[in-house]
Design brief:
Layout: H1 6-22, H2 30-46, H3 55-74
Helix pairs in contact: 1-2
Amino acid sequence: MIDLTNSERLVLFECLHRMCETERIAISHPAEAVVLDKIAGQLERELSEPFEPSYPVQLSAAREEILIGYRRRLGEHGWVERLPLDQI
């Protein structure tokens, strides 16, 4: 369970809703970055997988599972399919 204040939930909702509506992944206010950083920190404390040697394989499988489920619900022409990816 990720623990967010009501203000943090509102900021996150607005950020995610804007990203879905505009099909642009971008931070438009520093508070959005604060909330995302808080979630990342909570996930880091809760997850053991990132510290396991098999993490790259687990991450790849999780990504594929999520994308397959998304495509089943929305088809292969959803907005996330059109996002330019910055592969680092």
